[in-house]
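job 3f2a | input accepted
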Amino acid sequence: MKLRALLGFSAIVVPVLGLPAGTRAVAADCSGISGVNEVDNSEVNACLKPVVNARALIAVSDAVQKVIAGQLLANGGDMPEPAGLMLERPEDVAARLAGDGRITVEPTADVPAEPAKQRLWNAWIDGKYSWIEGSNDLDDSKGPLINGMIGIDYRLSTGAVLGLLGTYETSRLKTGGVLPIRQTTEGWGGGAYVGVTVTPNIVFSGLATYAAIDTDLDLASSGETDSDRVQLSAGFTGYWYFGTTRLSPSVTLAWSKEWQDEYSDGINPAQKFETGILTGGTVLGHTFATGGATSVEPWAGAFIDYTFLNETDTEGLGTDSIDEQADLRLQAGLTLNLATNMQLTLTGETAGLIVDETDSYAGQANFAIQF
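job 3f2a | predicted structure (371 res):
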């Protein structure tokens, strides 16, 4: 049962966004795209590609935005500690994080202490596995989407970072019906990102990526094609601490466009897919010191993903625009500070709590190290 059936959530959120209740995330004819209906490649792509592109756009922009905020606000604001400062007891670590000024000092030689060297480089790797579950409106299409990212950034100043990343993506959606159709995509890419501290508690992040994607369909008119996709996103993330409790609201505007060539069978035309998503939400976490420089932060977040642009342009056949729609996405996770310069974040996610056409369930891991 959908969350809106339990809480009436969409009855409040959807009208506020100016959308009619029960807006559709896919075209009306996507309920019959299995092979028994003899659909062509362009019809299948028009139904399945927007689903994959929207999830991939959220995955990449969300991961990079958290990396930037973590580098500039969560991990990047370390002040050089005075000589003799010891933070060996868990309660001292928690007190230091809360900023109440309590410290333990060990006697040291009466000589000037050399300031702690700030780590300027940050390297990270991120992997996300999503399972997409479509309803009858998407012909019961289901399957995995995997997004992998690796990046490195350099601190240009105390309030700015510049980084590069590489991306990998693969998906395999299978329709229902007597003669199911499988759409498989795989792509490699890369891009750049920038982060700037706007205030002591707010960071701006910007991202641009390019990916080359191969798409295969196995049906009566099976074939393959290549495409080029660009993703752009910009957002603001805030970090406010109340003792050892963190409140982190964020807003992100993300856009992607994919230019797909005609299929190798020479029959199905070229297509363009365009997606625009505005996301707003917040994360609430609490840090527990575990000893020395290590700590653990359980956290949970809720986000509204408002897809305001979702168009498929088929050469010679015109443009199909899917209705605007808003969805609720929930996350929960653990951030483990393994050392003063190493963090591991584990995330569980579910989406599709408002829209009827698709649900998704995801697991994600991110490891970062500063040097």
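job 3f2a | The two ends are 47 Å apart (CA to CA).
job 3f2a | closed
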